[in-house]
Automatic annotation (TrEMBL):
Residues 5-170 form the GTP cyclohydrolase II domain. This is GTP cyclohydrolase-2. It holds the Pfam family GTP_cyclohydro2. Its cofactor is Zn(2+). InterPro entries: GTP_cyclohydro_II, RibA, RibA-like_sf.
């Protein structure tokens, strides 16, 4: 187990009330959170989203990506089911960090795609560690998930880390002229699926 469950509290949101649970990585002290809507202990397969942090999309309304759109739609779908969990995975910019993400944006402005920009900065296309998310699910007592994602690699990595992903639920929202090339690159180079 790479992290510990540290604290929890009630959190009212515009979408409904939830329980926010904080986790801390044992080796780095980095923190992550889960938002739990409804009683997940009564559900055999929990509708879940592993959402990697994107300050620009989630909080600053960037239209360069689909992250903020996906965050909102995932919470809407979970609350419509009256039960589910969203893991907020604090690995900004596919885990290259906020400042490097801004550097990657600058490279994209000059013609590189999102994968090429990461490579130019000395990173792989995706640096995230999803085994942390598997540990979060386990600490919440979740064994089976219906995962809201367009990324089959996320399903594979969670499965390899011991999670039972019983279904991949598409989360196709937010396409616009500003993120068309970004989404096309995610489909063509990272294998994301954008059809239902």
């Amino acid at each position: 187990m790479q992290l510990k469950r540290v604290a929890e509290a009630n959190l009212p949101t515009p979408f409904g009330d939830c329980l926010i649970v904080g986790f801390e990585e044992l080796s780095t002290q980095r923190d992550h959170v889960a938002l739990i809507f409804g009683n997940i202990s009564r559900t055999e397969s929990v509708l879940a989203r592993v959402h990697s942090e994107c300050l620009t999309g989630d909080a600053l309304f960037s239209m360069r990506c689909d992250c903020g759109f996906q965050l909102e739609e995932a919470i809407i779908q979970i609350t419509e089911q009256k039960c589910g969990v969203l893991l907020y995975h604090r690995q900004e910019g596919r885990n290259i960090g906020l400042l490097n993400k801004i550097r990657a944006y600058a490279l994209q402005d000059s013609g590189y795609d999102t994968v090429e920009a990461n490579h130019q900065l000395g990173f792989s296309a995706d640096e995230r560690d999803f085994s942390i998310c598997s540990d979060m699910f386990k600490l919440l007592g979740i064994k089976n998930v219906r995962l809201l994602t367009n990324n089959p690699d996320k399903v594979t990595k969670l499965t390899e880390a011991g999670m039972n992903v019983v279904e991949r639920v598409p989360l196709i929202v937010g396409r616009n002229p500003s993120n068309k090339n970004y989404l096309d690159t995610k489909a063509n180079k990272l294998g994301h699926l954008f059809s239902k």
